[in-house]
Amino acid sequence: MRIMMFSHGYLPTLSGVTLVVQKIARAMVQHGHEVIIVTASEKHLPYQSEDQGVRLLRVLGIPNPFWWEGPFPFISLAAIRKLTDQYQPDIIHTHENALLSNLLLQVRWDKRPAFISSCYSLPSYLTQYLHLGGLEPWFAGVIWKVAIGNLNHFEHVVFCTRTHERDFLAHGLRPPTTVISNGVNIRRYCPEKEPGEDIETRYNLPLGRRILSVGRLMKDKKLDLLITAMREVCDKQEAHLLVVGRGSERPRLNALIRKLNLEPYIHLLGYVPEQDLPGLYRACNLFAIPSLVEVQSLPALQAAVTGLPIVAANSAALPELVRHGENGLLVYPLTPHALGEAIQTILSDPDMAYKMGQVSLEIGRTHDEQLTFMAYDEFYRGLVGKSN
Fold this sequence. Notes:
This protein is an alpha/beta fold. The chain folds into 2 domains: 2-183 and 368-387, 3-Layer(aba) Sandwich (Rossmann fold); 199-366, Glycogen Phosphorylase B (Rossmann fold, 3-Layer(aba) Sandwich), CATH 3.40.50.2000. Helices cover 40% and strands 19% of the residues. The chain has 15 helices and 15 strands. It has helices at residues 16-30, 77-87, 99-106, 123-127, 136-151, 162-170, 199-202, 223-236, 250-259, 277-282, 298-305, 318-321, 336-347, 350-364, 369-387; strands at 2-7, 34-40, 47-51, 54-62, 72-74, 91-94, 114-118, 156-159, 177-179, 209-214, 239-244, 266-270, 286-289, 310-313, 328-331. Strands 1, 2, 3, 4, 5, 6, 7, 8 and 9 form a 9-stranded mixed β-sheet that branches. It has a 6-stranded parallel β-sheet with strand order 12-11-10-13-14-15, sandwiched between helices. The model has no long low-confidence stretch (mean pLDDT 93).
């Protein structure tokens, strides 16, 4: 089977979506499919390459004012038609719901392949980057209408959580839907250390209790709330926040750290290679995520299968991974005080933290990425079977 995927970006452009697209594409190659991906060039100029059997067609990348590392893909309708005529895909699967998906819907097909879309975002994601004041609810409504109007032209829509699926169905989504978890590698992300693992020394990690946060340093991640919450935590006990990720918010976060006199307790580690991440999770006592727009969250999945208790905003799909009082605590969104109080509650009770970590393991293991890959393989084969 030949699958052509369209994605805003692909590694080395780093985000939750690019990581998911990469691992699904690689897995489908291992399942015997041919996979071609059309995506923006991180070098801006077009080029072609291969990634473990996945063919990458990187198109012109236009600078993105909201995310410098993730340029916008630029490709014409004629170029899309030429590529599809050349590769004759059985399925076109877009992992992007704006520029590329709109272009795909405008192409005039002689015989259209099976047309599916994955959805990874909420309209409120975009409004966080715009200063709209009282117009924000109106603008969010407009985005919902545009998003639903777009997705209603696809034959099938894939979501990674039931919560996300319900939100779109409630706003008028009509095509059939399927829920497939983004999945996590439960053999690498686990509580057991690897032989010779010494992440504390290599990264010069501080002694004492450690809270971990992983993700892009961008406005939608709300890391300023977590840093503010750490002032309350550190007033009651010594604890350190380790923040993994890179992004345009770093200067603003550094300024906030200095303002709150938290330099000894907050450590912006920047980019950490994926091979070091499992050890870093194991070196921490708790995972925290204050973001309001997570439709699943790969880092939260990784924390769960490592056996960490989790403190999260009670927003979007995070409650599917964080059961309040069982494997962590959910806090009211945008409340640094509640965030700090929840972190303090878990850190001050090791027995509670351990029990929560055990429940995290149970929840996380249901998201084994091997189950994800099997589900995608069956899904793709089912789609082609129906069209034949």
